[in-house]
Amino acid sequence: MIDIKGTLVSEGAGGVYNERMLGNYRVWDPYRSKLAALWYLDKTTTLDKDEVVLYLGAANGTTVSHVADYVESVYAVEFAPRPMEDLLVVAKKRKNIIPIYADATRPVLYASLLEPADLLYQDVAQPNQAGIAVKHLPFLKSGGRLILMLKTRSVDIRKSPDEVFADTCAELTKGGYIVEKSTWLNPYHQDHAAIICRKE
Ligand code: SAM
Description:
Layout: E1 2-4, E2 7-11, E3 21-22, E4 25-27, H1 34-41, E5 52-56, H2 62-70, E6 73-78, H3 81-93, E7 97-101, E8 117-122, H4 129-135, E9 140-151, H5 152-155, H6 161-174, E10 177-184, E11 192-199
Parallel strand pairs: 5-6, 5-8, 6-7, 8-9
Antiparallel strand pairs: 1-2, 2-4, 3-4, 9-11, 10-11
The chain binds S-adenosylmethionine.
């Protein structure tokens, strides 16, 4: 990851979402991106230039665009029409973003478009976040990583964030992932945890 005097940046054409520039580098804001927040909190989670990323919950491409600056290719899945329009504009300006307009609860509908991924990145803010990750396990290479950005309040508002976190880890483990570590994302994102898993 590129760090200029303590500021996380990525190298690529700017002007995606009015992001600040430091010379030729795009500043990656931890308050706008959970992946950037994770980097500020745990410098060991990095991206590599030969990685294929399957990204669920692409929204308007803010984080996707930074990920694409670092890796080989990003398959970016989004099901809401309005953010998808923005994502298409972002993808048009970069050669390594493949936008997929689809529901991540039904991967069978886009399985034929994918190649095996080194990293599954998920940020969908849905009740069944662990279930969606488990459905995508077959698309990860052996030894591949999952980074699940868990929004606890979207899963069950009646349970505490800690309970939702524990239930999610249990479901991921039952579904075949090895949970390696986790980080709560405050102060950048309240009640969000990054759960890092591996496929055996
Ligand atoms: N990852 C984005 C970023 O950092 O720029 C923000 C993602 S936002 C919190 C969650 C996104 O997931 C929304 O755009 C929403 O439409 C999308 N989403 C939620 N459920 C989905 C599903 N089942 N399939 C595809 N996209 C979904």
